[in-house]
Automatic annotation (TrEMBL):
InterPro entries: FN3_sf, Ig-like_fold. It comes from the Bacteria. It comes from Sediminicola arcticus. This is Fibronectin type-III domain-containing protein.
Length: 226
């Protein structure tokens, strides 16, 4: 009888303990509007706005998706949730936007984020300003170890629908906003070294310039040198 009881307890133990833990959602792949493009498929709603359909792929272990859309001129963002893999939103004509998708599952606290894509919603322009430079490093608010030459590398990327970037202006100083122009790199040069002093906070920004004289500003980023 004791042996039978022991066997039953073991069966219950292993039978109840085999359930897999819920899995975290995986990131989704974006489909449309295309990265660094002009979106011309919007349905006109008025002289100032058009409706654009955003599309992305299904991601595993996901119950719902949240799209975050940001107007890169006004820096105003909006968040919308859906269980579908597309959503239609009204956008300002001729304005640049960035967007990404967050995959969610109520069974876990973890989420997954897609890449961030940028695009222009078509308007009446024949020439578009460059997208604001995307800061790669140093990220804003971080502390950076200076090199043996007392330098820190500033790294960014640029994009333009018209593919006519002719250069950049790098502003860098201990003042906010930085007003000291320290470099004017050519379009293929997207990193520079700046001289720093230990235990000092620095501010920097990038102006992107195209052949039509259009410009865009990255906004101000900061880091502390160590």
């Amino acid at each position: 009888m004791k042996h039978l009881t022991l066997v039953m307890m073991l069966l219950l133990l292993f039978g109840c303990g085999g359930k897999d833990a819920p899995k975290a959602p995986e990131s989704s792949l974006l489909i449309f509007p295309l990265k660094d493009s002009e979106c011309t498929t919007g349905v006109s709603l008025s002289g100032a706005t058009s409706e654009v359909e955003f599309q992305w792929q299904t991601s595993d272990f996901t119950e719902s998706y949240q799209i975050r859309l940001t107007n890169l001129v006004t820096n105003v963002s909006q968040n919308m949730s859906t269980t579908a893999t597309s959503i239609k939103l009204p956008l300002e004509k001729g304005a640049p936007y960035s967007w990404f998708i967050t995959s969610k599952n109520t069974n876990v606290t973890e989420t997954a984020t897609s890449e961030i894509w940028r695009f222009y919603n078509a308007g009446f322009q024949t020439s578009y300003a460059p997208f604001p430079a995307e800061i790669i490093a140093p990220k804003s608010g971080v502390s950076v170890l200076r090199s043996v030459n007392n330098e820190v590398e500033l790294d960014w990327s640029g994009a333009d629908v018209d593919n006519d970037i002719i250069g950049y202006e790098v502003y860098f100083s201990t003042n906010n906003p930085p007003e000291t122009l320290v470099f004017s790199p050519l379009p293929n040069d997207t990193d520079v070294n700046v001289t720093v002093v230990a235990n000092t906070v620095y501010y920097w920004s990038i102006k992107t310039i195209d052949s039509e004289g259009n410009t865009s500003d990255s906004g101000v980023y900061q880091f502390k040198s160590l």
